[in-house]
């Protein structure tokens, strides 16, 4: 097999998704192509704006109380994790996890303690974050 026939086969595997059109400012032809060979890697799981707003609202109150001092956000292929730290040099006190694969089962959201114990799990983030609500104690 020659190199030329390999290139032809590669070109045959490409699908043109858009017509050739000149760009408005430059006059250069623009072609969008996609390969049918390898699938694209899965996108990362992220927290959306409403989810981050709810988490950071809770975080700000705990920082104001002096309980939490630092955080980290990890966007992984299978889940998103918001980790809370007392000090930056320590391991995380809690992890707030969004795992879409569990959305139809136990719920996509969970709060996990530093010991690995799941403190609360559910379908709605605001309900799961209620695990951090302070309980009033009777003082005599």
Automatic annotation (TrEMBL):
It holds the Pfam family DUF2794. InterPro entries: DUF2794. It comes from the Bacteria. This is DUF2794 domain-containing protein. It comes from Pseudahrensia aquimaris.
């Amino acid at each position: 097999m020659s190199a030329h026939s390999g290139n032809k086969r590669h070109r045959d595997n490409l699908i043109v998704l858009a017509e050739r059109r000149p760009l408005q400012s430059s006059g250069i032809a623009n072609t969008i192509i996609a390969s049918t060979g390898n699938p694209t890697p899965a996108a990362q799981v992220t927290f959306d704006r409403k989810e981050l707003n709810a988490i950071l609202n809770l975080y700000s109150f705990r920082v104001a109380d002096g309980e939490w001092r630092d955080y980290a956000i990890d966007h992984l292929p299978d889940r998103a994790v918001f980790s809370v730290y007392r000090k930056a040099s320590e391991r995380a006190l809690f992890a707030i996890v969004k795992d879409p694969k569990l959305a139809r089962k136990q719920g996509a959201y969970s709060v996990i303690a530093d010991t690995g114990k799941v403190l609360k799990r559910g379908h709605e983030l605001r309900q799961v974050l209620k695990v951090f609500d302070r309980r009033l104690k009777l003082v005599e």
